[in-house]
Specification:
This protein has about 375 residues and is of the alpha/beta class. It has helices at about 20-30, 45-50, 100-110, 120-130, 155-175, 190-200, 215-230, 265-275, 300-315, 335-340, 350-360; strands at about 5-10, 35-40, 55, 85, 95, 110-120, 135-140, 180-185, 205, 235-240, 250, 260-265, 280-285, 320-325, 330-335. The strands form four sheets. Strands 3-2-1-6-7-14-15 form a seven-stranded mixed beta sheet, with helices on both faces. A four-stranded parallel beta sheet has the order 9-10-8-13, with helices on both faces. Strands 4-5 form a two-stranded antiparallel ribbon. The structure holds 6-O-phosphono-beta-D-fructofuranose (F6P).
């Protein structure tokens, strides 16, 4: 008899731990005699291409991948079933809804359940597909930790570790030259990575999107630190940070099907705004995609593995329309709809903000 099939995919920006989830899904599924796992390459795009790009996943395929960064299934933050780019004769693009085609292809492949591993955008697509009748489970991933309804997403702690190592290294060069070093980190509209790395690394200023910064206060803090401290200063700035009354530094992408704004460059903007106000030489370092690359730390491997096992259990319980969620110390599930209702900002009255202020980190306000 033909086995029942789980279709798994990874969507959105890659993040350390994706392979550990895939491996856990395959290993847990193989404990069920009548189920098997198929992977779609580049999120739903593999399924929607002609010929389809799908692969059978077994324990041999996923052996040892939990320690590897990236995703063996590839990923994309372009296209998708509701926004499929079609090239016009004049070279421009139109976008079409291919949901019905997707449903037909799932049927053709004999898919009984879909597991979508992704961030906010992927969960939004998952919810829309669920409303169209597709039996889907969500697994939250993102280095940004900006998904609500889960205490943490895997990948986030690894990126904090990488950003912290950057602060550590910048401190020794800043101290040697008596410089101000500005470190720009990722995180989109949330300051989780920036604030955590600032605390872990011992930065002097942390500028996050949730707290618009007052440039004069930031300059005063740096001057005080340079004059009365050890002669150098470290600022960690999240890519979505903005001055009071200003907006985030971003640009549009010219890639067909890419719907996000590209954030980045606020570190240089800060340098321009501050260089005449401080009595210290300054340099900027943009950490960029280094924060997403490479091996997940052990914490994220464990979380990702827990998420993979739970996703299969939700499939077996037919708990479709749900997303795996970590609620310390348990791995539970929540309706995908509730997970995308709210964006997970750093709350101003949170312990993390309180702690940063408690050790004297200026938040620019
Ligand atoms: O969402 C993860 C993230 O790395 C953000 O922190 C960043 O703004 C964005 O993705 C970058 O995306 P891309 O892969 O398109 O450069």
């Amino acid at each position: 008899m033909a086995k029942k099939r789980i279709l798994v995919m990874t969507g959105g920006g890659d993040c350390p731990g994706l392979n550990a989830v895939i491996r856990a899904i395959v290993r847990r599924t193989e404990q069920e005699e009548d189920w098997e796992v198929i992977g779609s390459i580049e999120a739903f795009n593999g399924l929607l291409r002609d010929p389809m790009e799908v692969v059978l996943l077994d324990s041999k395929t996923v052996s040892g991948i939990h320690i590897r960064g990236g995703t063996i299934l590839k990923t994309t933050n372009k296209g998708g079933p509701f926004h499929w780019p079609v090239k016009n004769a004049d070279g421009s693009f139109s976008y079409i809804d291919r949901c019905d085609d997707l449903i037909a292809r799932l049927e053709k492949l004999g898919i009984n359940a879909v597991v979508s591993i992704g961030g906010e955008g992927s969960m939004d697509i998952a919810q829309r597909l669920f409303e169209k009748g597709i039996p889907i489970i969500g697994v939250p991933k993102t280095i940004d930790n900006d998904l609500s309804s889960t205490d943490l997403t895997f990948g986030y702690q690894t990126s904090v570790q990488i950003a912290t190592e950057a602060v550590d290294r910048l401190i020794t060069t800043a101290a040697s030259h008596n410089r101000l070093m500005i470190l720009e980190v990722m995180g989109r509209d949330a300051g989780w990575i920036g604030l955590s790395a600032a605390i872990a690394g011992g930065a002097h200023v942390a500028l996050i999107p949730e707290i618009p910064y007052d440039i004069d206060k930031v300059a005063a803090e740096i001057n005080d630190r340079v004059e009365n401290g050890r002669g150098f200063a470290i600022v960690v700035i999240s890519e979505g940070a903005k001055p009071v009354g200003g907006i985030a530094t971003s640009r549009d992408s010219n890639q067909p099907g890419y719907q996000n704004k590209i954030l980045g460059g606020v570190g240089h903007r800060l340098l321009e705004e501050i260089q005449d106000k401080v009595d210290v030489e300054a340099r900027v370092m943009i950490l960029g995609h280094l924060q997403r690359g490479g091996s997940p730390i052990a914490y994220d491997r464990v979380l990702a593995t827990q998420f993979g096992v739970k996703a299969v259990e939700l499939v077996l319980e037919s708990k479709f329309g749900h997303m795996v969620s970590y609620r310390h110390p348990n791995v539970v599930s929540v309706p995908i709809a509730s997970a995308i209702e709210e964006y997970n900002y750093v709350k101003l009255d949170s312990a993390l903000v309180h702690t940063a202020r408690g050790v004297g980190i200026s938040l620019g306000d």
